[in-house]
Design brief:
Layout lengths: L4 E2 L29 H4 L4 H16 L8 E8 L12 E4 L10 E5 L4 H6 L3 E4 H6 L4 H10 L2 E5 H17 L4 E4 L5 H9 L1 E4 L6 E8 L4 H18 L7 E8 L4 E3 L2
Parallel strand pairs: 1-11, 4-5, 4-6, 6-7
Antiparallel strand pairs: 2-9, 2-10, 3-8, 10-11
GO molecular function, one term: RNA binding
Family: Belongs to the universal ribosomal protein uL1 family.
Pfam families: Ribosomal_L1
């Protein structure tokens, strides 16, 4: 996090009556109220202003790809050697990416089900054979936005893929017994991963620059709340929060 932090002072955005950009169809979400733990130090208005500034900055230059938006977290008074490193899947109210390319890892009998859910398929046996081919595992991790597998395969797959997948911030989402693949895909599209290594500073993907400002703000508030709940002393462990797009400057949130 050596990038310069820009202090944002943009005016508070007004919610549009109708989106001017074509959005992906999503299930209707109930209005989300900020949690008490979030509002203790951070107001909704501050989140909206910061997110709006990030999106406005990203719109000034067109890219050949859709930029990801990350929340950058820097901790303080958090002994990584003493306390457990915070990690885990965080739930989002809105899709993390505008599109999704997923892969189901399973047995051949599941191939047809994968196609019906618009997923690519790779066999468990094929994945096991990659164990001695690190580059093949890295390419697999980079090829897809998300991976799914039935619960009974997770333990074996994690032994083979965990190291290569963690470097790409990827993980395998378990599909529960009787759970339709479509529901599992919806769940993974509204999820992001928190990876904390040996550094008390880390980034978490919260959305993309094509999102509506209020949708992105919803995602930011949801992620901040869940991070605070994982920290031993909540806000007292937070040194700073910043937001940036892939190619944009860093804007201070807290």
């Amino acid at each position: 996090m050596s990038a310069d932090v820009v202090q944002e002072d943009a005016a508070e955005p007004t919610r549009p009556t109708q989106s001017t950009a074509e959005a992906e169809p999503q299930q209707e979400q109930e209005p989300r109220s900020p949690t008490p733990i979030l509002l203790k130090r951070l107001s909704e208005e501050k989140v909206y202003k910061c997110v709006n500034t990030v999106l406005r900055a990203a719109s000034t230059k067109r890219r050949r790809f859709v930029e990801t938006v990350d929340l950058l977290v820097c901790l303080k008074d958090y002994n990584i050697q003493k306390y457990k490193r915070v990690s885990g899947v965080l739930k989002l109210p809105h899709y993390l990416k505008p599109g999704f390319r997923g892969c189901l890892i399973g047995f051949k009998a599941e191939r047809k089900e994968a196609r019906a859910a618009n997923l690519d398929f790779i066999g468990v046996h094929e994945v096991k054979l990659m164990h001695s081919r690190p580059m093949a595992m890295k390419r697999l991790a980079a090829r897809y936005d998300g991976f799914l597998a039935r619960e009974q395969h997770i333990q074996v797959l994690n032994k083979v893929l965990r190291q290569s997948f963690s470097k790409k911030r990827k993980y395998i989402t378990p599909v529960l017994l009787g759970q339709p693949l479509h529901d599992a895909v919806e769940e993974i599209r509204r999820s992001t991963m928190l990876w904390m290594k040996s550094d008390p500073a880390f980034g978490i993907s919260v959305g993309h620059v094509k999102m509506d400002v209020y949708e992105l703000a919803d995602n930011v508030m949801a992620v901040v709340t869940q991070v605070l709940e994982k920290l031993r002393h909540g806000w007292d462990n937070v040194r700073s929060l910043n937001i940036k797009s892939s190619m944009g400057p860093v804007y201070q949130l807290y």
